[in-house]
Automatic annotation (TrEMBL):
Protein name: HutD-family protein
Upper lineage: Bacteria, Pseudomonadati, Pseudomonadota, Betaproteobacteria, Burkholderiales
PANTHER family per the UniProt record, alphabetical: PROTEIN VES
Pfam families in alphabetical order: HutD
Organism: Neopusillimonas maritima
SUPFAM superfamilies for this protein: RmlC-like cupins
Highest taxon in the source lineage: Bacteria
Length: 199
């Protein structure tokens, strides 16, 4: 289990030096940017910038602050990031982010597709989900505050998740429930499985 607030994590330059990132979690804990199985980070984009390239990595990016950002791919495609709408792409792709308005923050899940797979879901209302006990789950709060309850075979636990809090549960969860405590709260939920991606 890991619980950290993004504001308390030191910022470092991107791999290519064109932006700043705060690493919330990485596996294995001793991994570097060239050998992780999965990694979670928050990036600050203050100006138009090229993304770093990551071979064999699947990326899921989600805008958590700011109105929008446009991802321009070297094959001519583009995608507009909107708040709390996860978007998946491959780390080998050459991507440039352009900002129509002001600076933005985004949350990144990166996974070595040869060794892990996963997804990120957006929630804005109370719900309860059944969990795969072989997967790990993490939560991130872009806005507001949440009441979280988890259940495994041994116990039931309760958590409070505030603005930009990150909370990771290792494999064993059976059930996960969440309820917003203030209006406008949003929540991102990821499921990560070890093993090669089927995508």
């Amino acid at each position: 289990m890991k619980h950290v607030n993004a504001a308390q994590v030191p910022a470092h330059l991107w791999k290519n030096g064109r932006g700043r990132t705060r690493e919330l979690d990485i596996y294995p804990e001793s991994a570097e940017l060239d050998n992780f199985i999965w990694r979670v980070s928050v990036a600050d984009i203050d100006e138009d910038a090229d993304f770093s390239e990551f071979n064999n990595i699947d990326r899921i990016i989600t805008l958590i602050q700011g109105e929008s950002a446009i991802l321009q791919f070297d094959n001519g495609h583009h995608h507009t990031l909107e708040p709390c709408r996860p978007f998946r792409f491959q780390g080998e792709q050459k991507v440039r982010a352009t900002l129509p308005h002001v600076s933005v923050k985004d949350l990144n899940l990166m996974m070595d597709r040869r060794r892990a797979s996963g997804c990120v879901l957006f929630q804005c209302e109370a719900a309860e989900i059944s969990c795969d006990p072989e997967s790990l789950y993490w939560l991130f709060c872009p806005n507001g505050r949440w009441h979280i309850k988890t259940q495994n075979a041994q116990s039931t636990d309760v958590w409070e998740l505030g603005l930009h809090d990150y909370l990771r549960f290792d494999p064993s969860l059976i059930r996960l429930s969440f309820k917003p405590e203030v209006t406008g709260s949003t929540l991102l939920i990821a499921q990560v499985q070890h093993g090669a991606s089927a995508l």
